[in-house]
Amino acid sequence: MSIPRIVVVGGGAGGLELVTRLGRRLGRRGRAEIVLVDRHATHIWKPLLHEVATGVLDSGLDEISYQGHARANGYRFQRGTLEGLDREARTLTLAPILDDDGQEVLPSRTLPYDELVMSVGSVSNDFGTPGVSEHCHFLDSPGQAEAFRKDMLNVFLRYNAPQQDTQTRMVVGIVGAGATGVELAAELYDASQMLHSYGFTPLESEHLEVHLIEAAPGILPALPDRISQAVHTELERLGVQVHVSTRVTRVEPSAIITADDQRIETDLSVWAAGIKAPAFLSELGLSTERNHRIKVESTLQSIDDPHIFAFGDCASCPQEDGSLVPPRAQAAHQQASRLYKNLLARLDGKPLKPFVFRDRGSLISLAHFDAVGSLMRGASARSLFIEGHLAKFFYASLYRMHQRAIHGTLKTGLMVVVDGLNRFLKPRMKLH
Fold first, then answer.
1. Rg (CA), the chain
2. Which residues on adjacent β-strands are paired with residue 193?
3. Between 363 and which of 373, 402, 417, 426 could a Cys-Cys bridge form, CB atoms 3.0 to 4.6 Å apart?
């Protein structure tokens, strides 16, 4: 008798946590075959991509090999990109894998499933703004973060030229003042200080000009006003020029143009304004929102097919009050936990339970300068405002919690020790 096969597409934070738990509980015991599909070979926690972009985090040290992790945790890894879904036959079609020269390494494959989980996350939404895709950096993947880091280093290096005026200002324009844009803005000032201390560039932080542009009336529009205002004040103290209620109409090779015809000349432009699910989700024959998020029941099952689940940023999940679960990392973490239990119940023939989102608060890191946030206290949902060292501690603990979920307590403890040694032995940022 064959065992059921659960296929999870997308190895982001939620997807990796889910297959890890399923692999340990079901895969190792032969109760089910767990398969993870991802187009990349490695995983890195997406909330850290702004640190990869500035070189503060070396992705080569922190990334996780899916193949190695799969062997250690009872699941199987298939590298590939989903290009087709046959719901009647319950099969996926994975696109061919090509090398850097466009030559086929692995042909198109068909992968059967009994239960399918979509966990492909989200990508930046440029809202069709002219010039964005051609002239802006995005931070949706480690590859994009690395591309920004290399361009950033090249711009800093360019100011080493003898003919350059030492007072020249390097200008970075960031469109979108959500968590990614805000944290990147602060990290850039930290990076400029470190690059100057290593002799990489004559520019100091006062020669860096960062423009943070937000269409909403305030930065961090999804978070409480107290956090937004505190972060706004800290950013301006660092030197960030914050533009609120400012809509970008187009982006040129070296400039960002706003709706009031303001022209902001830039050396680097970054787009971090809004997200959407990958467009291919709307081509699979499933019901989706305009932003391509899959419509699911409260049990995280697709409204079209009880054998297909979706969670995280790519799912449109209703809550009891009629609103939708917000596309946040903590929501994906909570949904991974609920979906793990629901899949176990499904295999045992038991009823599935609805997902209920619990807001645990929000934390924003401003590099080494500060951290600000709130923690939710108990069922009353009263928030506790925190900042400074305490907020930094809780912010750092979020990543350690993710590591613990996919590696276990012992290995995570050893990683904390190794990370401490690396900070002592290696430069504070990746300089090559």
1. 22
2. none
3. 373
